[in-house]
Input
Amino acid sequence: MVSSTEYGSHTWELLLTVDHQHEGVEKEHLLQVTGDLHVGGLMLKLVEQMKIAQDWSDYAFWWEQKKCWLLKTHWTLDKCGVQADAKLIFTTQHKMLRLRLPNMKTVRLKVSFSSMVFKAVSDICKMLNIRRSEELSLLRQSEGTLKKKKKKDKNSKEPATEDILNLCNSPVSSGLPANPGLYSKTMTPVYDPVSGSPASSTITWFSEGSSSEQNCSILALSHPTCSPEMLAEMYQPRTLADKAKLNAGWLDSSRSLMEQGVQEEDQLLLRFKYYTFFDLNPKYDAVRINQIYEQARWAILLEEIDCTEEEMLIFAALQAYHVSKLSLSSETQDSTCESEVDEVEAALSNLEVTLEGGNKSNILEDITDIPKLADNLKLVRPKKLALKAIKTYWFVFRDTSISYFKNKETAQGEPIEKLNLKGCEVVPDVNVAAKKFGIKLLIPVADGMNEVYLRCDNEDQYARWMAACVLASKGRTMADSSYQPEVQKILSFLQMKNWTMCSQAASEPENVDLKPECFVSPRYTKKFKSKQLTARILEAHQNVSQMSLVEAKLRFIQAWQSLPEFGLSYYIVRFKGSKKDDVLGVSYNRLIRIDMATGDPITTWRFSNMKQWNVNWEIRQVAIEFDQNVSIAFTCLSADCKIIHEYIGGYIFLSTRSKDHNETLDEELFHKLTGGQE
Output
């Protein structure tokens, strides 16, 4: 018999590469290992052989061929599937990454390349003092959106180092645990002495001294200095297909950065992915509100979302206001006076500016009474050959339906028609200057969408009916506590549009140091002369000049939310059984099938009616089943189908949030709804 030592042992050679910065020290090491050696033992064996005294706690093995981390240190090599041909790299889990924020500033910070992106974004937001990290994600700029830049300037280089805010010394960036009290509701806010904005955690997280104040100001304050030349160099989508390119590069939240090919010092975009901004609170959300405002501002300037000329001037006036406000360096916000306000009192006052709701003091008032609206409105029905039939009827709005009659006297009988608005699309058709207050309803029917236009006589009537239509489309009635706040929000937006000519501002626009090209999209720069734009922006400015800085940003965000296309992320898809491509719009509460050629919505499906959804990973097809035996299936052509799957699951996850949960996230539920692999 032959002994085991003569025949050969069970050990085998494994080549390991160490990613370290020590000069003159070998990076490759050959170790004798066995299959029952666990990963932690392999680390120990490697470190002992290197004989380099340093902290190795952030190091882990990266398996190059399989693109995965070996993070379960108690697993054996056999269980991991590691054999002699495996290329294992012993490297740091936290690496430097460049992030371009919504305000177009680039920050450089250490991020975990081994954690799932969902967790990595959470850590990033702690560094930047942004609450509700689940609303954000990381976006890789797609090649299609970079082509224009390259054509404009082939010699363009990376941004200069002085333009990059370096945050690599913050605690989370170094892999240390975050302060658990960072997002506490009961913490006492500390205001930044320069900007007057809440900066309780940001200043303490950055280094001490004046530089910390500067860093905080960059993140919490807006510095709109874009020029027409700068806008011209940036990608501007012209069609729905172009808009689809903007959403193609979202990273998978259930996988790590390294697994998705992101390398150290790469640049990614940090953006608000989900357009449900929960519990916006000016007292703690200075950075968050500013970054949402900036994302909205750039979306409007680059025409990623359509708006009317009237609306563009409102947005321009709010931006111009920021410039004039920021030019007064000695002026601080009104919010500095609030530092002594009691926490409970502050929480109550913040309800008025929180975008998610309003005053709920009348919830129990008249709960047995079913609210209804009844009024004379004009009904406009589009006909062939571009002719429209306009006629006045007596309309009654009850529950989630509109009925109309020939006149008020016949309202007790059968209506001419009853329109169920649940699941419909509600589009404002307003021109305040021309006294036009219209509501466009796209009501789902068996073969598509039925178009109905309603015309109101004045602002008050429009606000009441528009608010009722918006709630009904979501399956809610006027008895809902959000009805009155919705009416007030619409009236507030109309009031901003309803400016009157200011003789002084209009007669002396040349005396105002205002560059209108910086505040409107290129389309309007071409349409009007500079003096004309300045005068019109100053007209609109009269209605917003008395707002505080934070209020102006919140009004800008609210106006953005009021646009018909707000919150829609577009993808090019091919529906099962269809011979042509369509555009799928994904919103916080619905999916919309849109004709790619005309841009008209074809069908709407509400998440509230969805029973289940899944992905056939072999053919990359998303299948969704709704109530009433309605089912759809489609393949995504402009992006990976996982992105749409994650969008749907993400929005459903966000709808489960509550202020009562102490702001802790159920990460397991998020991955269960969005992962798709389990």
Summary: The CA atoms of residues 11 and 383 lie 83 Å apart. The chain has a mean pLDDT of 79. DSSP finds 20 helices and 24 strands in the chain. Residues 569-674 form a domain with the PH-domain like fold (CATH 2.30.29.30).
